[in-house]
Q: What sequence folds into this?
């Protein structure tokens, strides 16, 4: 056996991977060749050095981030979510109608006198009485809202898995207001004089592009929705994104808790308002400035919006809100700081991205992206 | 070097195929360090390694239904990780000099100061030497001497002939030895 042939076996010798015959030939050569013995010693030292490298450990939270990105969502639930999507992203006009109808129910239930009166007054359905049912149909026909993924309230993958059954019960929650409003519709109409003309005036015109200039009635619930988004952002700020209470999972009736107390003052009959007071408080939530605000110019706003939401989910984050600002779509996202570089890199591929503000101190960044043509 | 790969956790594959949500979490938990480890040693950046490691598990998740089970879960994941790393390294925008960052966190676990300094110098040389290996050789070296896979496991993960694994490993080690000659 030559020196070259011998040395070709050194590596396998270090791994104890020689056949007995190879081993015998090797030993025979080494016994009489000092050069090869020296070479062998050098190679074994090198192998030892490399093997002394400590095995790496994945960073903390890695498993959670993978699970969040995988979002193992069973097909029936995904279908249910798609079907319910319009309800979760109701145009604000429809939300305002629900709000008004809901208030009417409160007043109706709360006032014994009026209940008495209602018994003797035959109700005749007026034009506005169909509003609550008409509005959702418009929602469905609006391409923007119908296709929008409503993820703000989506629970993290791990807890969602555990609570699948629970979700199935909770998901249809947004439909409740409609059920409540059907019976006392006309009473509702008659008694709610405070936000005037909102049901009639807006019903035929509600569409996503008009929400920016919403009248008083709509602005009310718009604020409530913003507060909801802000609250979610706050949760992200505290790094509690993954531990959201299950209460987050079903969107509350729009603006309900904000408005209910003022009604209580007027009617003084609030103790019976269980259905609406169940929602979590939204008042007093400060508006937090985002860590990152950016502007994305794209040919297709809707597509870009969906891509951003998908991207956020892919990098372990999520959508926390959405609003229309001056006619432009503003997507609010929570992005883990570790994945921020990847987020920016991939967001750049969607169109022309300009970052107006960028602070990356916090572990989960509140990112606001304005999307326009 | 990491401990031997060993057999799959009992029953895990069956539960994964049955779509049991908890099973996927177990898979990620069991193999996260191995998958991250190979990505880190190949790419050199922790952020990039995490990105790739996450992608490995997402691909595995999507491909579970098609996984025939003729390889072990561990070698299958190492295989996906290896392919993704090689693809990443080959991508045009990645062709920048990041080599020195490879093995950035090689430990200096020597108690006394003089030895520590020497070890630090050696670590730097080792880091540079490994980063300087051709990618296919570096991959085999990392899988064998850092991740502790056997020749057969490497062959299975990379779909290579065991003889090829052996010769690549041999060339990688010889190359390293030459670069580290002065420390020998």
A:
């Amino acid at each position: 056996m030559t020196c070259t042939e011998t040395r070709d076996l050194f590596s396998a010798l270090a791994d104890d991977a020689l056949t007995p015959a190879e081993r015998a030939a090797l030993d025979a050569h080494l016994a009489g060749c000092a050069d090869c013995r020296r070479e062998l010693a050098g190679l074994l030292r090198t192998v030892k050095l490399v093997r002394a490298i400590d095995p790496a450990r994945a960073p903390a939270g890695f498993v959670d981030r993978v699970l969040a990105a995988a979002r193992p969502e069973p097909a029936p639930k995904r279908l249910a979510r798609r079907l319910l999507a319009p309800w979760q992203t109701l145009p604000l006009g429809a939300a305002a109608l629900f709000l008004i109808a809901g208030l009417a129910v409160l007043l109706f239930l709360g006032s014994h006198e009026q209940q008495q009166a209602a018994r003797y007054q035959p109700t005749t359905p007026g034009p506005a009485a169909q509003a609550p049912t008409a509005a959702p149909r418009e929602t469905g026909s609006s391409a923007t809202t119908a296709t929008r993924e409503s993820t703000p309230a989506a629970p993290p993958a791990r807890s969602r898995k555990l609570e699948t059954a629970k979700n199935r019960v909770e998901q249809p929650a947004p439909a409740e207001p409609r059920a409540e409003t059907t019976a006392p519709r006309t009473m509702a109409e008659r008694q709610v004089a405070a936000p005037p003309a909102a049901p009639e005036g807006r019903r035929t015109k509600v569409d996503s592009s008009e929400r920016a200039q919403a009248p008083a009635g709509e602005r009310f619930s718009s604020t409530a929705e913003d507060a909801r988004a802000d609250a979610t952002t706050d949760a992200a700020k505290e790094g509690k994104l993954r531990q959201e209470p299950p209460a987050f999972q079903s969107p509350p009736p729009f603006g309900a808790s904000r408005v209910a107390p003022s009604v209580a003052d007027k009617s003084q009959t609030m103790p019976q308002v269980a259905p609406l007071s169940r929602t979590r408080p939204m008042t007093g939530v400060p508006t937090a400035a985002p860590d990152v605000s950016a502007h994305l110019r794209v040919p297709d706003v809707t597509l870009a919006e969906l891509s951003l939401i998908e991207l956020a989910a892919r990098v372990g984050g999520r959508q926390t809100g959405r609003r229309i600002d001056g006619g432009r779509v503003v997507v609010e996202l929570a992005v883990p700081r570790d994945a921020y570089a990847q987020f920016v890199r991939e967001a750049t591929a969607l169109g022309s991205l300009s970052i107006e503000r960028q602070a990356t101190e916090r572990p989960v960044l509140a990112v606001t992206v304005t999307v326009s043509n | 070097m990491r401990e031997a790969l060993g057999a799959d956790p009992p029953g895990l594959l069956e539960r994964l195929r049955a779509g049991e949500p908890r099973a996927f979490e177990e898979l990620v938990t069991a193999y996260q360090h191995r998958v991250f480890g190979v990505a880190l040693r190949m790419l050199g950046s922790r952020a990039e390694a995490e990105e790739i490691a996450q992608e490995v598990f997402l691909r595995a998740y999507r491909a579970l239904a098609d996984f025939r089970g003729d390889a072990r879960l561990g070698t299958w994941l190492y295989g996906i990780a290896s392919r993704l790393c090689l693809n990443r390294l080959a991508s045009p925008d990645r062709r920048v000099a990041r080599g020195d960052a490879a093995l950035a966190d090689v430990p200096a676990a020597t108690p006394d100061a003089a030895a520590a300094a020497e070890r630090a110098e050696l670590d730097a040389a080792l880091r540079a030497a490994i980063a300087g290996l051709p990618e296919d050789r570096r991959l085999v070296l990392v899988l064998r001497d850092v991740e502790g896979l056997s020749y057969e496991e490497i062959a299975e993960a990379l779909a290579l002939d065991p003889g090829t694994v052996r010769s690549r490993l041999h060339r990688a080690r010889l190359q390293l030895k030459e670069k580290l000659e002065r420390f020998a």
About this structure: Chain B has a mean pLDDT of 86. The two ends of chain B are 20 Å apart (CA to CA). The CA atoms of residues 143 and 149 of chain B lie 6 Å apart.
